[in-house]
Amino acid sequence: MRRAYLLAAAMLLAVACSRPTKSSLPSPSGAADANNDPSPGQSDGADASTDPSSPGQSDAADAGADPTPSVPLSPLPGELYYVQLGLSGLALGEAAIIVGPDGKIVLVDVGNDSHADDLHAAIDATIDAMNAAGFVPRQHGVIDDIILTHHHADHTNGLAQLLELVQVSGRVIHRGYYDVGAVDASTFESSCAALAARPSLELALCSGAARAPCATGSWQGTYPVTSCSPEVADALLSFGAEAGIHIFALNGIIDGQPYGTLPTDTHGENARSMVALVRRGDFRLLLGGDLTGGGSSTPPVEGFFAPYLGSAAGIDILGVDVLHAGHHGRKTSSSQPWIDALLPRDGRSRNAIMGVSEGHVNSPHDEVLEILLSASRLREGFAWTTLVALFGSRSAGLIDAEGGSVVLRTHLAGKMYDIQAVSRGGAVITAQRYPSVHAGQ
Ligand SMILES: [Zn+2]
Question: What are the E-state strand segments in 230-329?
C-alpha cells in the first residue's frame, strides 16, 4: 500500500519536475558523446550507449599517487570518509554516512521510513570496518549525530523508525519546526513526535515566536522563523583540527541575509535546505540538500547564496573539490551561478555526487549533466550517481553505481582523495584518485 502510494508520488514528482529533452554532452576530456538519438517523445535519457564503468584513467597517474584501490574504501583513522548510500526499493530516499578522521559518525538525511533497516545495516557495517581499521572501538547501532537537511519525506521520513533501531549519542540537527507552509505533513508529524519523545536529542538551528505543534491539523498559520544560528552546531560537528562539518546557510538565510519570501509549494521546502561544508585539511565537499536554483520555476536561492559563500563558509575562488548536486540531480538545483562558484572552470579536476533512488524517476536530468560536464568543467573528474533512475539521463562523464553507493575517502590528511562507485553487491565499478584543489596553495 505504502509502496504503491510512494511510487505514485514519485511519478507525480517526475511529471512535475521534468521535461523530456536530449542533448549531446562532451566527456570531461572533451571526447564526443556517443549517445543514441532517442525517438521523439522518449524520455530524457533512456539510452545507455556510453559505458560509464570504464571511464578514461586520469589523475592517479599525473598526481604521482598510489594506484586507485580495487576494494571498496572503508573508514580510516585520520581521514574523512563519505558514502552516498544507494537506497533500494521504490520509496524515494537519500542518505549519506560521514565518518570523521576522529571516528565521529554523522548521518546526513535518513531516507524514507522503508529505508531504516538499510541504514541500520549500513551503519553497523561501517562500525565493523571502523573497528577493524583501528578506531577507538565502537558499539553496533550507536552513531553521534544526524543532520536533516529539510522536512521532506525522502530525507526525513525515516527518522522515527531509525531512532527505534539506532542510538544517537549527540543530537538530531534540523532547521526547526517553523516556516511550515511547505513541509511534508506526515514527515513533519512523525519526526516531530519522535524528537518530542527524546527532547535531549533535538537541536533546531532556527527559532521563532511560536513553534509549530506536531499535530499538523492544529496549525494556525505558518509559524515564521525569526532567526537562524547554524554556527551553534559547529562545535558538535567538529572532527578535530582542520576537519568538520560547517552548516552555514538554511531556511533561505545566509550570513544573516534572507532570500525573501519563499513559496508554500513543495519547492519552498527544498529552498529551505541546509547547506554545509565538509572539510578535512585541504579537501572540501559541499552538501546542499535539495536547495533550489531557479529551474522549473523554483526560487533561485543558489544564486542568492553564491556571493556569500566566501563570507559564510570561507569558500574562495577555487570552490570545492566535490559538490553534492542538489535534489537528486534534478534541474531545480545546480544552477549556473552555483556551479560556477563551487566547481569553477579553471583547469583543475573536481567531482560531483548525486543521491538518486529508484523512485526519483527521470534523475539525473539532462540539464544537470550538461552544466556539470560540458566544456571540460570537471576536467578529469566525473559526475557520480548512486543510480540512473527510470528515464534518467546518461552521458559520457557520468558514472553510475547502479543502485550501489558512491564512496569517498581523503588521502594524506586531505591533500588528495579517492572516490569510487561500488555496486550493491560490493564490487568496485570505478575508482579514481584526485589531488585536492587547495593542496599546495
Ligand atoms: Zn529530495
Answer: 243-250, 253-254, 257-258, 275-280, 283-287, 322-324
Give residue 376's region: left, alpha or beta (phi > 0; psi -120 to 50).
Answer: left
Q: Residue 155 Cα, ligand 1 centroid: separation in angstroms? A: 6
What pTM was computed for the model? 0.86
Region of residue 182 (left: phi > 0; alpha: psi -120 to 50; beta: else) = alpha
Q: How far is the CA of 133 from the centre of ligand 1 (A)?
A: 33
Hey, where are the domains in the chain?
A: 61-213+221-435
Three-state SS for 301?
helix
Neighbours of ion ligand 1 (CB under 5 A): 154, 290
Enumerate residues 6+ apart whose C-beta is below 8 A from 345: 375, 376, 377
SS3 of 191-207: HHHHHHCCHHHEEECEE
Segments of 386-441 assigned E as strands: 398-400, 405-411, 416-422, 428-435
**φ, ψ (nearest 5 deg) of residue 429:** -85, -45
- Which triple of cell numbers denotes residue 222? 505558518
Cell of 27: 566527456
The CATH number given to 61-213+221-435 is 3.60.15.10
User: Which runs of consecutive H residues, i.e. helices, occur in 57-201?
Assistant: 59-62, 116-133, 153-156, 159-165, 185-196
pLDDT in the model for residue 91: 84
Q: What is the dihedral of CA 426, 429, 430, 431, to 10 degrees?
A: 20
- What distance in Å separates the CA atoms of residue 396 and residue 314, rounded to the nearest whole number? 32
- Please name the residue that has the C-alpha cell 590528511: 413
Predicted local distance difference test score (pLDDT) of residue 440: 82
CA of 66 to the centre of ligand 1 (A): 36
Return averaged pLDDT per consecutive 10 residues of the chain, 441 residues in all: 39 34 30 29 30 38 54 97 92 96 98 93 98 97 98 97 98 97 95 97 97 96 95 97 96 97 94 98 98 97 98 98 98 98 98 96 98 97 97 97 98 98 96 96 80
Cα 268 → chain centroid: 18
CA distance 363 to 368: 9
Query: What pLDDT is recorded for position 68?
Result: 67
CA of 214 to the centre of ligand 1 (A): 21
